[in-house]
Amino acid sequence: MEDYPRTLAELEKRFSVEETCREYLANLRWPEGFVCPQCGGKKGWRMRQGLFLCASCRHQASVRAGTIFQDSRLPLTTWFRVMWYVTSQKSGTSALGLQRVLGFGSYQTAWSCLHKLRRAMVRPDMDRLSGVVEVDETYVGGEKPGKRGRGAWGKALVVIVAQENGKHIGRIRLMHVPDASGASLGNAVMETVSPGSRVKTDDWKGYNGIEELGYRRKIVRKNSAVGDNLLPNCHLVASLLKRWILGTHQGAISEKHLGYYLDEFTFRFNRRTSQSRGKLFYRLVQQAVHITPKTYEFITTPLVGGG
For the residues of the chain, what is the DSSP string, one character each? Predict the structure, then answer.
C-alpha cells in the first residue's frame, strides 16, 4: 500500500523527528522485511540510531547505507523537506532557489542535494519504451557562434525518444550523446527502446543501422533538414525542454552535468498528469533508497548520457 503525506502540513507533522524518517525509509527499502546487505539474511534486530543487527553474519546495517543518503551530514528531516520541495514545484527548482528556501549555509550543499536526487529520478533498470516511438535529436545550449544543424559547434546534442499514445505523447527518454554518428545514435536507441518496436526517424544516415539492431524503422521524410513537422512529439518535447532549461535554470546548465538535468526533466514529464504531489514525493523517496551512493567528486565528474 502506498503511504505518503498529502500536504506540506502533514509532512511537517509526520516527519519532524529522525526516527520516523528512518522507519519510513526502512519500510520502503525492505518492504518484505529486513534483508542484510552483507549476506542476504532475512532475520535481524533493530538497534539504536536506526541500525539493524543481522542474525546470520552479525553485520550492523544502517538504513542510510547503500542509498543516496549515505555519508550525508544532513539529517533525514532536512532531506525529506528537500524532496518535498523538489517534487512540489511543478517546474523544479535551481540550487540557488533551494538554498534560499531551506536556508542552506552554502550553494554547494543545495547543488549536491539536487544532483543526488536527480540520480534517483531515473532508475538504472528503467523499462525501455516499446510500441511506436519517435526518435530525433536537438541541440541545447546558449547562443553561440557556429553552423546550424547536426554538428553545430558549442552546443550539446540530446537524443529524444517519445512514445506514441494515440494523439498524445506517452513516456519519453532523453540522452546526452557526444555526436550524431551511427554508433552514438544506435546506442541511444538500444538503451531506450525495446527491440521489435517501430521507430520513426528522419533520413539522417546516423539511423541507418538501427534495423540491424532489431528495430522496424520508418523514415518520415527524405530530407532531414526541411519539411513538415513529421516528428511532432519529439519537437514538442524539445521545445518544452529548452523552455524549462531557460526558465527554471536561466540556461545556466553545464554540459558536463546535462545528463542529470535530463533525468529530472524525464521524471517530471513522465509524471506530468499526476494530481498528487505527495505521490511524486513517495516515488522519489522510493527510488532514492535503491540508488547506490556516490561521492561529491563523482557527481562533479563530467557525465555523458542520462534519461
Answer: -----SSHHHHHHHSSSHHHHHHHHHHHH-TTS---TTT----EEE-GGGEEEETTT--EEESSTTSTTTT--S-HHHHHHHHHHHHHSTT---HHHHHHHHT-S-HHHHHHHHHHHHHHHS-TTPPPB-SEEEEEEEEESS--SS--STT-TT-EEEEEEEEEETTEEEEEEEEEES-SSHHHHHHHHHHHB-TT-EEEE-S-GGGTTTGGGT-EEEES-S-SSSSS---HHHHHHHHHHHHHHHHHSTT---GGGHHHHHHHHHHHHHTTT---HHHHHHHHHHHHTTSPP--HHHHTS------
CATH superfamily of 132-239: Ribonuclease H-like superfamily/Ribonuclease H (3.30.420.10)
| pLDDT tens track for 18-49 | 999 999 999 999 999 999 988 888 888 888 77
- pTM for this entry: 0.83
d(CA 218, CA 11): 48
